[in-house]
Amino acid sequence: MIRIQHEDVDIGALITAAKQPGTGAVVVFDGIVRDDGITEMELEAYEDVAVPEMEKIARDATEQFHLQHVDIVHRIGRLSVGENILIIVVSAGHRPDAYAGSRYIIEEIKQSVPIWKKELTKDGGRWVPGEHGHGAGKHA
Amino acid sequence: MTVKVRFFARFRELLGTDLITNPNTGTTLLALVKELAGKKKEGYDAIFDEHGNFREFVILMRNGKRVELADAAAVAVADGDEIAVFPPVAGG
Q1: Which tens digit of pLDDT belongs to each residue from A81-131?
Q2: What's residue A136's pLDDT?
Q3: pLDDT value for A139
Q4: What element of type H or E holds B31?
Q5: Are A109 and A72 in contact (CB under 8 A)?
Q6: Mutation test of the interface with chain B: which of A105, A134, A139, choosing the one with the most B Cβ atoms within 10 A?
C-alpha cells in the first residue's frame, strides 16, 4: 500500500500484512510530529506526483534490497505533536535487507517526494526547509 | 488555450494555486510564471531574484516532469498543460 492520506493507519495490521512466506524480519519506520515548541504541523503534498514517486521508490527498494513487502503511508493535513506522519513497513528474508531497505525509502522520500511541512506555533508558522538544496522530480 | 498553474507550500500561500490561465500561443514557462507571480510582489520575490531569474532552489514541473530552470525561457506551454512551481521538498 502506497498512500497519501489524512487518516492515521493501523501499524499492527500493516505488520501482519508484511509477513510473507520466508519473511525473517519486518522493519517499521514511524516518523512522528516532534515537540519542537510547536502547536501543530500542517502537511501538504503534490499528490499527482508524490504517489507515483513513492511507488517508484518502493519498486527500487524492493529490487535493491530483496524486499518482500513495502507499505508507505504519508499523512497530510493538520497533525498534533505525537501523531504519526510517515509510516514505512518493509519485510525481507533477513534483517540487513529490511533495515537497509527501510533506510533507503525514508532517505529517498526526503529527497524527491513533493511534500512540505509547516510548523504551526502560537506566533504563526514556519515552513520546514528541505534537507536538500533541490527537491522533487530528480532527473530520470 | 488553457493552462493550469499550481503553486505549493509557501508559494501557494503567497500566490494561490490551481490558477487557470489562457496564455497566448508561444508563451514560455518563464513568461507565464512571471506574469502570475507578478501580481503579488512578495510572491514574485519568493520565486524570482532581482534579475528576474528563477531563484536557484525553485522547482518547476510541466505535467509532472521536472523542467530545468534554464530551459524555462525556451519551453512554450501547450494547451492542457499543468505547471507546478514549488520550493525544495521537506516530507518524511
Answers
A1: 999 999 999 999 999 999 999 999 999 999 999 999 999 999 889 999 886
A2: 52
A3: 43
A4: helix B29-37
A5: yes
A6: A134
Q: How far apart are CA B3 and CA B26, in angstroms?
A: 12
The sheet with strand B65-67 has its strands ordered as B19-21, B3-7, B82-86, B59-62, B65-67
Residue ranges per structural domain of chain B: 3-86
The string of pLDDT tens digits covering residues A39-94 is 999 999 999 999 999 999 999 999 999 999 999 999 999 999 999 999 999 999 99
Instruction: Give the Cα separation of B46 and B11 in Å (integer).
Output: 7
Distance from CA of A9 to the nearest CA of B (A): 15
Given this model, what pLDDT does residue A130 score?
83
Cell numbers representing residue A9 in the block: 493507519
Of A110, A137, A139, the CB nearest to B91: A110
Per-residue pLDDT, averaged over B10-37, amounts to 96
Total-model pTM: 0.92
CB contact under 8 A, B91 and A118: no
CA distance A110 to chain B (A): 5
Write down the CATH number for the domain with range B3-86.
Answer: 3.10.20.30
Of A114, A132, A138, nearest to B8 by CB-CB distance is: A114
Residues whose CB is less than 8 angstroms from the CB of residue A12 and which lie 6 or more positions away in sequence, other chains included:
none
Min Cα distance A75 → chain B (Å) is: 9
